[in-house]
Design a protein that fits this description.
alpha/beta, Purple Acid Phosphatase, chain A, domain 2, 2 domains, six-stranded mixed beta sheet, 11 helices, 15 strands, 32% helix, 22% strand, elongated, DNA_Repair-Maintenance_Comp, Mre11_N, Phosphoesterase, hydrolase activity
């Protein structure tokens, strides 16, 4: 018996902050979540699996546009035509009821509502499979839902579908169907298919308890290859797992040090050469954050050039792997040299200004944009803002000294 474990497809994720890219490139990135989903369905059909588990957040919102609903319907129709079962639960992003979905329940389509329920099928090899799950109908569930999961029926291969997070983890204070690993193990199920956490991880090997991560990284904080798990169950009921990649693009950060006394031509040539060197063995196209580790060597004119979207587009066209530069992060290796009094004033200003609370307050009008909220939630953001402020100070002080 074979099945696929998929979660967090986030169809129609907005990929905020990339609108500066050429229209064709931006459109391709916007469609990458759908392309990754189609790759998954292709694998399911090619490998003749018995069923596919979609463990929440298949859509990025609880009000997906009709075109995206139709996309999902067509993909599930492909699975149904191949006599592959699909089990669907809704998560905290796409919380809804089965009635909201254009896809309809049927012989090969099983959609969970808010109540924990068991759906039973017989696999091609005769294995009786119980799939147990539930759906979100609101975006937060603070209750431990696992307590309602029924006992395993002897002789049935039993799977728990759970879109949630371990109690007390960093995804939010127990707002997402919190559970403990101990209680999952105590259920004695054959497999627990998890969703919600976008970092791929195996929480337990016996029984297998897995977060597959999402199918396509959506921003810089979701780097690396993404995909799903293929599970194979042998005649003794032993389950083995294999990760299958679906990323259309991968997000990655490339760090470089620049030589002194740069001209525009040398700056561009250095960036292109070093990016090409990093990407030469990477089979998947990349969305690149360029971190310049010693950006204090840049003249302000060159620094400002690298902030211009047109320059990023120009450099992207020169990269041989058809990848895109989407962000430049300026770090500093040589810090400001100040007298004791100036250093004291600088440190007081830093402590007063660069606090999570102050930054969140200043950015409040922009927090409605998901990509900005994600950026500010990143624990490294404050450090980057401090580095940028220090770099600007160095540039301003350099100009002042030149004028003197």
């Amino acid at each position: 018996m074979k099945f696929l474990h998929v979660a967090d497809a986030h169809l129609d994720s907005p990929f905020g902050g990339l609108s500066f890219l050429p229209q064709a490139a931006h459109q391709e990135i916007q469609e990458s979540t759908k392309a990754a989903f189609t790759k998954m369905v292709d694998v399911a059909i090619t490998r003749d699996v018995d069923f596919v588990l979609l463990v929440g957040d298949t859509f990025d919102s609880n009000n997906p546009v009709p075109a995206t609903q139709l996309f999902l319907m067509r993909e599930i129709e492909r699975l149904t035509k191949a006599r592959i079962h699909t089990f669907i639960s809704f998560g905290n992003h796409d919380y809804m009821t089965p009635e909201n979905l254009l896809v309809q329940s049927g012989q090969f389509v099983h959609i969970f509502d808010e109540n924990v329920a068991t759906s039973t099928i017989t696999a091609k090899d005769g294995t009786v499979v119980d799939v147990i799950g539930f759906s979100y109908v609101r975006n937060h569930i603070t209750e431990d839902v696992v307590q309602y999961f029924p006992a395993k029926v002897p002789g049935h291969y039993t799977i728990g579908m759970l879109h949630g997070s371990a109690a007390g983890d960093q995804s939010g204070v127990d707002n997402y169907a919190p559970f403990s690993l101990t209680e999952l193990n105590n259920k004695n199920y054959d497999y627990f298919a998890l969703g919600h956490i976008h970092l791929r991880q195996v929480l337990s090997s016996n029984p297998l308890i897995i977060y597959p991560g999402n199918l396509q990284g959506r921003h810089v904080n979701e780097p690396g290859t993404k995909g799903f798990y293929e599970l194979t169950v042998d005649e003794n009921g032993h389950t083995t797992s294999k990760f299958v990649a679906t990323s259309i693009f991968i997000w990655q950060t490339i760090t470089l040090d620049l030589p002194n006394n740069l001209t525009k031509e040398l700056l561009f040539a250095t960036i292109i050469a070093q990016v090409d060197d990093v990407l030469k063995d990477e089979p998947t196209r990349s969305l690149i954050t360029l971190t310049i580790r010693n950006s204090e060597v840049l003249e302000k004119e060159l620094h400002d050039l690298l902030l211009d979207p047109a320059i990023l587009n120009y450099l992207s066209q020169k990269i041989s792997s058809a990848s895109y530069l989407v962000r430049v992060h300026f770090a500093v290796k040589r810090h400001l040299q100040l007298n004791n009094l100036d250093q004291q004033y600088l440190e007081e200003a830093r402590q007063r200004t660069f606090t999570p609370e102050e930054v969140q307050e200043l950015a409040k009008p922009l927090m409605k944009h998901g990509f900005i909220a994600d950026f500010l939630a990143d624990p490294t953001t404050i450090k980057r803002l401090v580095e940028q402020a220090e770099l600007l100070l160095q540039q301003e002080m350099g100009e002042t000294r030149d004028a003197d």
